[in-house]
Structure prediction request, 284 residues.
Amino acid sequence: MTRRREIGRKLDTLTDISGILSAMRGLALMETRILGEFLDTQQRMVDGIATAAGDFLAWHPEYRAPDSHRHELWVLAGSEQGFCGDFNETIEAWAVARSRNAGTLERWVLVGRRLWDRLGEHPRTVKCLPGATVASEVPEILLRLTREINELLTSGGFAGSGLSTLYHDDASAAPRRRDLLPVRDLPPPRVLAFGPVLNLPLGQFVSEFTTHYLYAALNDVLYSSLMEENRRRHAHMDRALDRLDENIERLRLAWNTQRQEEITEEIEVILLSASMLASELDST
Prediction:
């Protein structure tokens, strides 16, 4: 009886865990569908801005910034929550490997508490910011991130530094490096008969355009990273649930086997008692 009760308690525990994991898997799936709508629109916007930037710089090459910088600030996008496989480990491995061979002085801004746990004490880390857990939190995270980046790039030793990011790209399901400032990695300019017509002085246009591009690109980065995180979490939950189902089925078989043994023992006791009672009656 004790053995069967122990198996029953384990079975109840695993059943409860299975319910929790099923709920987490459902939430991850729901987030991927919500994020899919955001990402499609956001990526089209960024592509449009990049095309406009390429056209502008083709006609005004004097505003094209140099590709190399002595200082580089990196935004490393990790996860706020766990249960997403090697999501953060991959970002960590890339960043640490690069830091050993980088020819520039690099510093890191970490996004996501799970990445803090891995790189928060690293000497290259200068800021740790929370990440989004759901799509509706991205605007608030983006606002704080852009504020911190602006403060870093306009003060002290970081003034004039380049800005890049490393994140999980949802399209390729792999880490992607993306250079943001100065505006780089643009598509080839279109062949136009006339240059862009501007309603602002060139210097003001470049300043405001750069701010707009950076905001849109970082928004795309955060949404893309969160999408891939939830996809990995959904896959992770699937694998975990498969293993749980196997364990639950094995425990159920063990519970049934134990119960059958107990029933057999009870029948043997009943038969033995009946035999003894019959012997006593015969002797009298």
